[in-house]
């Protein structure tokens, strides 16, 4: 599995609803980790399929200016993996995909504050368990780009809802 598509569901944001220079935000999100896998399955042939998992995620964001921020996310998820040829059970694996993005938050006077971001992701695979069909399996760690679109919706002076989509 070389790529992951992470979509964050609506979450409650702790901290200032519309942050400004010098503010720190701590978010607790529920995310969907949707692997976009690629593999070489030499014995069985074909490719692999990994299931989608919903997991909790924490992120920390610091605002350098009213518009520029850096966000670091941390989450981990476990995925069942099968061979696409014949549906053989290849086992399961955990992935830790910390992602750091530099964001631009658009300034506006409404309760909606959209943002975009770009950065880097490191996907670290661990705890791999072979399925009944095979004796061993390996996963390659990866480093790659991350792209992000998001929106904060102000609920009150201290909280907002957040929708965030990342392609890593």
Structure description:
By secondary structure, the chain is mostly beta strands. It has a single domain, classed as Porin (Beta Barrel). It has strands spanning 3-14, 24-36, 48-50, 53-63, 68-74, 77-83, 89-96, 99-105, 112-130, 142-154, 159-167.
N- to C-terminal distance: 12 Å
Q: Let me know the average pLDDT.
A: 82
Question: What's the structural domain tally?
Answer: 1
Q: How many β-strands, per DSSP?
A: 11
Question: What proportion of the residues form beta strands (DSSP E)?
Answer: over 45%
- Within the largest sheet, what's the order of strands? 1-2-4-5-8-9-10-11
Do you know the CATH architecture? Beta Barrel
Helix content: under 10%
CATH class: Mainly Beta
Individual helix count: 0
Query: Helix- and strand-based class?
Result: mainly beta
Largest sheet, in brief, is: 8 strands, antiparallel, barrel
The helix/strand series, from N terminus to C terminus, equals EEEEEEEEEEE
List low-pLDDT spans: none
- Which fold name is given in CATH as the topology? Porin
Shape: elongated
Rg value: 18 Å
């Amino acid at each position: 599995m070389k790529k992951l598509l992470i979509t964050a569901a609506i979450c409650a944001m702790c901290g200032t609803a519309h942050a400004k220079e010098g503010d720190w935000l701590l978010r607790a999100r529920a995310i969907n980790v949707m692997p976009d896998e690629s593999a070489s399955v030499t014995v069985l042939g074909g490719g692999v399929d990994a299931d989608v998992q919903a997991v909790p995620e924490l992120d920390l964001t610091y605002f350098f200016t009213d518009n520029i921020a850096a966000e670091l996310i941390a989450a981990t998820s476990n995925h069942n993996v099968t061979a696409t040829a014949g549906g053989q059970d290849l086992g399961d694996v955990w992935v830790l995909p910390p992602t750091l993005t530099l964001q631009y938050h658009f300034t506006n006077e409404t309760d909606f504050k959209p943002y975009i971001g770009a950065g880097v992701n490191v996907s670290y695979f661990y705890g791999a368990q072979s399925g009944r069909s095979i004796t061993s399996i390996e996963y390659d760690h990866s480093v790659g780009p991350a792209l992000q679109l998001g929106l904060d919706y102000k609920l009150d002076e201290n909280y907002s809802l957040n929708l965030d989509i990342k392609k890593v």
